[in-house]
Design goal:
globular, mainly alpha, about 180 residues
């Protein structure tokens, strides 16, 4: 299972690295420009919904509701996949926005929040991939005997923190300044 986790995680990192390091086009069709303009708001909605699913899934497993846990966690994984596609598309098409707030806020609030958000996102990928693979590959009884519960607790903590900080970054970029 760890080989699959490592392979998928490296593939995700590779695709993201390639897409995010490419030069955006000079001009994009109007329909894509509309997508780029709407993307930050859609991304924030997706991340907020993924965070809610993640927390509800954690709550469900704590209450012993395995089927609900599985549904919520799969929904969160699908939402984060949609986020990744939308985020990479937006950045690849030149939809990057600079922080326009005061230098003090940029230095002491925005940049640290963004840095922690990105770091937690990067650290979460293999944990999420592993838990999704285990959850889909084993029966409920077998999952409990794997590292899934332990890795899952860490994944929920890192991933939910990352998602929440991502929403804070969105608010700072698009509503506060």
């Amino acid at each position: 299972m760890w080989w699959w986790t490592a392979g998928i995680s490296l593939a995700v990192y590779g695709v993201l690295g390639y897409a995010l390091s490419s030069e955006p086009p000079v001009a994009v069709p109007q329909i894509l420009a509309l997508l780029v303009a709407a993307a930050p708001h859609l991304i924030a909605a997706i991340n907020t919904t993924a965070l809610l699913c993640l927390l509800l899934g954690y709550r469900a497993i704590r209450a012993g509701r395995i089927a609900a846990h599985r549904r919520f966690m799969l929904a969160a994984a699908l939402l984060i996949s949609a986020f990744l596609v939308l985020y990479v598309t937006r950045v690849a098409l030149g939809g990057v926005k600079a922080f326009e707030g005061p230098p003090f806020v940029r230095t002491y609030i925005y940049l640290p929040t963004l840095s922690i958000h990105i770091t937690l996102s990067i650290l979460s990928v293999p944990l999420i991939v592993h838990n999704v693979l285990v959850g889909l590959s084993f029966s409920a009884g077998e999952v409990a005997t794997t590292a899934h519960p332990r890795v899952g607790r860490l994944a929920v903590y890192l991933w939910s923190s990352s998602l929440a900080l991502g929403v804070v970054v969105y608010v700072l970029l698009n509503h506060a300044y």
